[in-house]
């Protein structure tokens, strides 16, 4: 499954957030991978809006496996002061974002991946498109 979430980093602490994520503890990296967090990325907007993306078999189970690790408790405590809502540990304050479109899923559902991926050439002399062979 694909999971997207958002949260908010305090804008005045974004540089510190980036610094910490430039060198995440190796033990934390291993724990995330072992818990099933795959293809995990974080994106930070100029206003502090944080968007996370990951792929896993079961998000609730992956989160629960992380919650059992000592390194996660230490990481969340270390990161908590950087977030706008510090009432909860950062990983418990994620707001899940609904996926409404995925290109590969729709191409597979259409059943015509090869034709959909064919290059399109615009003939500007007559103003219409035709598929290249």
UniProtKB/TrEMBL annotation:
It is an enzyme of class 5 (isomerase). Pfam families: rhaM. This is L-rhamnose mutarotase. It comes from the Bacteria. The keyword NADP does not apply. GO terms for molecular function: L-rhamnose mutarotase activity. Its EC number is 5.1.3.32. The lineage of its organism: Bacteria, Bacillati, Actinomycetota, Actinomycetes, Micrococcales. The keyword Isomerase applies. InterPro entries: Dimeric_a/b-barrel, Rham/fucose_mutarotase. Keywords: Isomerase. SUPFAM superfamilies: Dimeric alpha+beta barrel.
